[in-house]
Amino acid sequence: MKGIQHRMVNVNGITMHVAEKGQGPVILFLHGFPELWYTWRHQILALSSLGYRTIAPDLRGYGDTEAPPSITSYSCMHIVGDLVALVDSLGVDQVFLVAHDWGAIIGWYLCMFRPDRVKAFVCLSVPFMPRKPMKPVDSMRLFFGDDYYICRFQEPGKIEAEIAHYGTSNVLKRIISSRKPGPPCLPKDNAFGIEPDTPIALPPWFSEEDLSYYTNKFNQKGFTGALNYYRALDLNWESTAPWSGTQVKVAVKFIVGDLDSVYTTPGVKKYVESGGFKGDVPLLDEVVVMEGVGHFINQEKADEINSHILDFIKKF
């Protein structure tokens, strides 16, 4: 982590923690759940050494960034507002965007609302999801059942209590090490499949030191802010009605592992491969499906992802 600078920035009415390294064109990295700026450590070190200014915030509700208490403070409008203010604070008009998981969802909203601020977008794991006629949580419950993880996250305090019961470290270890195909479900009798006295092995690309950093930050902050993104899904659906049927007019490279729990959720692979994705994102330049790779792709295959990012942004 040598040379990575940390600072606090006032954005959109909250205080945001930002990790930064390098000089040159800005690459803005957006993490997902349950992660932090730290997920991008390999990309920050590699791309800052190649003439880029790398910026990785803890998103609203995570890590050392402020976590407003109300669910309604976690809408896509709020999060995109944070990022526009962050880009403004950097003194640049446009950034290269690299995002994963929830960061990718927010990245799509940023590209949809403010394409003028994004030079190009390297999207990991989660493709664009066009607005559907039915509210998302109702739709997910209908298709995947009450145990679908997003449905299980809806009731404030409930999943937080289950995480506390099993322990932050064990839950993070289980999520990060999982290679089970989607759709991810959390049974009510044992949400994370954690058994007493049965150790959970970390993957080789995620060390005990990495786990300790995550665990300490989530123990300090709690999970509620992070979970509120899921609790604001229906609010996002309501507030984005004016963008129904819109196309995303930003150049995009999409990268996913073929074992990713999002990609293996029914309907996603077909949407990506059938032309639906390209129809909604006409400037989609390339889709890369990495064989034998799971969800946390930027950590599992850090060198390959670094090369993919560089190869794409060098075009602009």
UniProtKB/TrEMBL annotation:
Q: Say if the entry is tagged with keyword Hydrolase.
A: yes
Keyword vocabulary terms for this entry: Hydrolase
Source organism, top-level taxon = Eukaryota
InterPro entries reported in the protein's UniProt record: AB_hydrolase_1 (IPR000073), AB_hydrolase_fold (IPR029058), Epox_hydrolase-like (IPR000639)
Q: What range(s) does the AB hydrolase-1 domain occupy? A: 25-134
Q: What protein family is recorded?
A: Belongs to the AB hydrolase superfamily. Epoxide hydrolase family.
Q: This protein is called what?
A: AB hydrolase-1 domain-containing protein
The scientific name of the source species is Hibiscus sabdariffa (roselle)
